[in-house]
User: Which sequence fits this backbone?
């Protein structure tokens, strides 16, 4: 056996079953690629599980710092959100995982790569578009589009028949994806959008009812759009995200329950925990409102929607994202300063804004007496600004 397939392996139900299935279906050596993007896992145990299930080799790749610096920080600067609600936790991680899978495939001289995404979801697109962009000639195997298994229940039965170690049961068939930026929950009772989520499934956040009775004050410092300090203490990128997950999570910040439009055309219900992301996006928005020119801010808001959409669609490695990053980096030159917030039972309240590059001029904005703004100038401005509407109204009345 000298053919090799590199599998993006998480150790969950799907990829555990797939490892065994791929080995037997394709008569190939399976190389498990486990990418650490901040999920709370015992990676030594995952590696052992992969080898026990039949992997020839299993790589554990620590990609947390790269994830924060090259993906999360770019998303923060772009205020990248999909459909005004989804903070792109899974969408940002998938291209990085795909990159590491391709690097492993090149190292192992594999003829194919594989992933655990279903034929209904977005992740199949994110993985495969990334694979094709990074290594155009590689064969891609998507078991969910090939095998005879039709459901999670079928997978569980397959695993038990072949003594594959799994953690999912028939009684609690949740699908969950975790990384530094979020934890997502779907499947099971959540598939009915009229069902409330279950409190006991959350791992990063408490409910507002169980949050502290006193507010927590948080001061975030950004430098050129990138978060650097928490309460005047400098943090390395990964530790900064972890710390904010802890602070915001215990104050019930970051729970999201949305219906989103998948790329493949169907609607889906997603429940997410994104505590660090929620406070960082909020603070970054506030700092931009203080430091960006009006027209730059308004134009950037249009680009932010495009950025969020292309990330959601799996086009991270395309030229559009790279071009947008250049524009966004230019807008962030003066996005430096502090945003103070009060966190209280799920709410984020602004407690102060400051920047050495602030465009807010108190002397100009005041309602008190000043000599910088001539209010008489407003009359001519209004006349010209509304001239086209006035002309149209006059001429239409003549007809």
Assistant:
């Amino acid at each position: 056996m000298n053919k090799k397939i590199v599998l993006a392996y998480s150790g969950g139900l799907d990829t555990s079953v797939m490892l065994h299935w791929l080995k037997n279906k394709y008569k190939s050596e399976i190389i498990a690629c486990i990418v650490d993007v901040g999920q709370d896992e015992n990676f030594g145990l995952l590696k052992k599980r992969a080898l026990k299930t039949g992997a020839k080799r299993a790589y554990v790749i620590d990609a947390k710092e790269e994830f924060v610096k090259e993906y999360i920080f770019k998303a923060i600067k772009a205020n990248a959100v999909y459909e005004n609600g989804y903070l792109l936790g899974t969408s940002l991680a998938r291209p990085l995982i795909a990159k590491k899978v391709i690097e492993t495939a090149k190292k192992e001289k594999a003829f194919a790569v594989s992933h655990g995404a279903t034929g209904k979801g977005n992740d199949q697109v994110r993985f495969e578009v990334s694979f094709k962009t990074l290594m155009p000639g590689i064969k891609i195997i998507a078991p969910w589009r090939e095998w005879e298994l039709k459901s999670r229940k079928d997978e569980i039965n397959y695993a038990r028949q072949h003594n594959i170690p799994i953690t999912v049961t028939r009684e609690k068939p949740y699908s969950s994806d975790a990384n530094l930026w979020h934890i997502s929950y779907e499947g099971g009772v959540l598939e009915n959008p009229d069902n409330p989520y279950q409190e006991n499934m959350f791992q990063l956040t408490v409910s507002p009812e169980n949050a502290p009775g006193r507010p927590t004050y948080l001061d975030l410092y950004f430098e050129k759009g990138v978060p650097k300090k928490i309460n005047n203490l400098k943090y390395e990128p990964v530790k900064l995200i972890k710390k904010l997950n802890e602070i915001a999570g215990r104050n019930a910040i970051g729970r999201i329950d949305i219906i989103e439009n998948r790329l493949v055309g169907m609607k889906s219900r997603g429940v997410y925990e994104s505590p660090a992301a929620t406070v960082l996006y909020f603070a970054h928005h506030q700092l931009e409102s203080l430091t960006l020119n009006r027209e730059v801010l308004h134009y950037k808001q249009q680009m932010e929607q495009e950025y969020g959409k292309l990330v959601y669609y799996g086009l991270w490695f395309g030229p559009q994202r790279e071009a947008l990053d250049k524009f966004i980096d230019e807008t962030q030159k003066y996005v430096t300063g502090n945003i103070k917030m009060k966190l209280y039972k799920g709410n984020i309240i602004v407690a102060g804004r400051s920047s050495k590059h602030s465009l807010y001029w108190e002397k100009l904005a005041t309602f008190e007496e000043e000599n910088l703004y001539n209010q008489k100038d407003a009359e001519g401005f209004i006349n010209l600004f509304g001239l086209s509407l006035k002309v149209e109204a006059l001429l239409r009345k003549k007809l």
Q: What stands out?
A: The CA atoms of residues 65 and 238 lie 6 Å apart. The chain is about 40% helix and 20% strand. The two ends are 85 Å apart (CA to CA).
